[in-house]
Amino acid sequence: MFRLIVNICLLSVLIFFGGMAAAQPEENISPVQWHPMFKNNIEVAKRFNIRKILELANERDSSGQHRIKSVTSLLQQPLFSELENEFERSSVLMGESRAIFRTAASPDLPRVLNTAGTMAYAYYTDPKHQRAFNSLELIDTDPQTAEMNFYLIEYRSGKPIVVKNQRNCVSCHRTRHNWAIYRLWPGIVDGHSIRDHIRAPEGTSDIGVTMDIWELNMARISRQLLNDRAYRKVERPVIAALLDCPIETFSFDDEQAFELIRKSTLEEYYADAIRLIEDVNVTNNQNISYQRRADGTMAFGTLLNQEDPRRLALVRYFLKKSGSKVNDKEWSTSRRPAQSSILFQASGALGLNRLAYYLIHNSPNAEVLKAMVPDSAKLTHGARSETPESVCHELLSGDTRPITN
Fold this sequence. Notes:
Blueprint: H1 2-23, H2 39-45, H3 50-57, H4 71-75, H5 78-81, E1 90-94, E2 111-116, E3 119-124, H6 130-133, E4 135-141, E5 148-156, E6 159-164, H7 167-173, E7 188-189, H8 206-226, H9 229-232, H10 235-242, H11 255-284, E8 291-292, E9 298-299, H12 308-322, H13 349-361, H14 366-372, H15 389-396
Antiparallel strand pairs: 1-2, 1-7, 2-3, 3-4, 4-5, 5-6, 8-9
């Protein structure tokens, strides 16, 4: 009996410490190294973040009562009001919404969506919908880890009620923002004619909101990959694929399998691109055309680059080869069928370049990779350029297993 008890105790200890080990992350990842073009947002995040917002909402006066008793009053505080228009905060007015209080938004009294620093927050302008009017919705992205948390601050009887990661928010957003490219999100309204009558900022910029969310999404995707041990096995070929290295420089275990993946991706790309164009035409009352060439390929004008699907196909191929469970279908921030691919969320190659930047500069092998890709700091969303052959050779020469285990 004594021996049985001892064995049970030893087994319990092993299970306990084994469970602790399993719960630990595979590797400690350093704080996010953001792209230089996002530097201003990171500076804003030092003074405009969820900790300071919650502290402000819960401030009390000398009598012990909450000093701020409504969302309107909260938004008038310097923490919010002193965000410099356009340079520190981007805003867009939503005449319809699928958020928690979806019935509270209308073209005349819209939901106001803002981005500032690494924060996205939204509020409502129709006082007839009291609960929505007295609520502030926030998505906080940690500048150190790129992890997202959802907050709802609701004022009831002059007191703030804070709910973190409410089920409705998490089930809809999961681990990402819900947004589309530029004006393809239904319900955006021009605020110039109504701004004087609502509590909205003077300037609105759906492009600014889009670019902020786009940048946060690139960091999220890179973190997803860097936290995946299987990705490390194919780190260099994935980066080479994102940088559009020529297909001849890669090696494949099964050329036929790759061709099937490439063909499948291209056909999927065509179908998505056609849906996207039709979506643009309907949403913006435009008439963008497309045509199929004699060789079976399609021409979409300047909307998207024909070569981008190949880059994504290569990324998919190497991730699948490594045994990675990461799914690029989760990379898009839009839940609309016509924008289900990251290619339509991040301007194709321009976004893939930026993702390569985050993977290079946040890798445990960052110094080695930066030496291989000396111009990696120039990988921006504003330029499309060919990757030098020497860089591709350096990334793919010899053994393509990870530089370190």
